[in-house]
Amino acid sequence: MDIQTLFFAVVAAVAILSGILVITCRNPINSALSLVMTFFCLATFYVMLDAPFMAAIQVIVYAGAIMVLIIFVIMLLNVRVESGKKYTHGVLIGSIMAVLLLFEAFYFLNRSSLTGARGMIDANVVQNVGHVELIGRAMYTDFLLPFEITSILLLVAIIGAVILAKKKI
């Protein structure tokens, strides 16, 4: 096993562990911090795939701006932690479903075959044009509607959090 494969395995293990912590932490702030760790692991994967721009955007936008927004909403809603109740049945059912989904994913990945189809963008196009321009062209031409819908959904979520918080005041 070479060093790159070992590094990938370590980062993947940390990503899986922090992903599990996102859904199992009782404290919403601890859950948000685990999500930040998952975002950093994803940025590491982007660097390993030779996509440094996507790694930087992952850290700046998601681990930075979006997480500040999520923590702001958590603080605004003043979410309380219920320490007295145990939810073992929910964790058990979720764990069983996760294991079944993992086996299903491995089954389909092992039974599938690559199509051999290639896209229009290869390594030469990326070297000549650049990551940023290709992403910008795709985002503001082919994917403009989903990009705008996402921004509207984020705005609606923030307004909803403010309205819910004002009802309690």
Structure description:
- There is one protein chain.
- This protein has seven helices and no strands.
- The model has no long low-confidence stretch (mean pLDDT 83).
- The longest helix has 26 residues.
- It is globular and about 55 Å long.
Task: Spell out the key features of this protein.
7 helices; 81% helix; Four Helix Bundle (Hemerythrin (Met), subunit A); 0% strand; 169 residues; mainly alpha
Outline the secondary-structure elements.
Layout (H helix, E strand, L loop, with lengths): L2 H22 L3 H21 L3 H26 L10 H24 L11 H7 L1 H12 L1 H25 L1
Helix pairs in contact: 1-2, 2-3, 3-7
User: What would you report as the Rg, rounded to the nearest angstrom?
Assistant: 20 Å
**Number of E-state strands:** 0
Oligomer: single chain
Shape: globular
Structural class: mainly alpha
Per CATH, the architecture of the largest domain is Up-down Bundle
Between the first and last Cα atoms, what is the distance in angstroms? 58 Å
The CATH superfamily name of the largest domain is NADH-ubiquinone/plastoquinone oxidoreductase chain 6, subunit NuoJ
User: Helix tally?
Assistant: 7
Bin the helical content.
over 70%
Mean pLDDT: 83
Low-confidence stretches: none
Question: What do we call the CATH topology of the largest domain?
Answer: Four Helix Bundle (Hemerythrin (Met), subunit A)
Strand content: under 5%
